[in-house]
Predict the structure.
Amino acid sequence: MDFGRLITAMVTPFDRNGEIDWETTERLIQYLIDEQKSDALVVSGTTGESPTLTDEEKIELFRFAVEKAGGRCKIIAGTGSNNTKHSIHLTQAAERCGVDGILLVVPYYNKPSQEGMYQHFKSIADSTRLPIMLYNVPGRTGASLTAETTLRLAQLPNVTSVKECASLDQMTQIIAGAPEGFRLYSGDDSVTLPALSIGAHGIVSVASHIVGSEMKTMIEAYLKGEVAEAARLHRQLHPIFKGLFECPHPVPNPVPVKYALSLRGMPVGGVRLPLTLASEAEEAFIRRLVSR
């Protein structure tokens, strides 16, 4: 399964009552495909506020995204959790919805051993025919999948890729040891180009809600050997990559990008507790950021 080079971890639009706004969700899907050039969308990932979505909402989002994308981009369902049995349930439901793949985050909070992580992911992989993208994000989960365990999991036939957020060093280890066809995606917008330079396949992005088209141009320039142009675009985009997470101090994703979308004429509503809306100072920072 080729998920493409630019994957957007999609926010979940909410209405004034905090319920999923389906009309806006459809509009956002079309916008991310047509205007921001996404090759694939992650639905119900962390950026989509998956911890606050019910199973019923997640399954309906999977079904809805598949229908509205209409084959124009891949749909990847976020079905991972820190409960293996529950992850299997959601994965099998996502498969019935017709998604193209699943994203499985490292189990959070309970901090399993590397063997526990391996058995967790293997159990889910054994329950589905869908291609699996692992997701290692130590800053959110409190545990890190090592390069060695990632490469062990890469031997499973339907574990086809990893979204890696640990470090460029770990990315390098994984790419160097990966079997043919196994793909690494950066999970950090700010290292998209550096990751490509060491052999990453692409990016699972948040900033692509705002500058996806420009990111696609940067990626294509690098792949065509136009390294100086790709570097120029990276430098131009870097303030947005960093600013969306550090405005003016670290702000939980997806709060800044939802506000940035509203400034770009794509309002997607607020966030669910325990997240809260951007402060006035944060809004002012984001306005300056996206008006550059």
The radius of gyration is 18 Å.
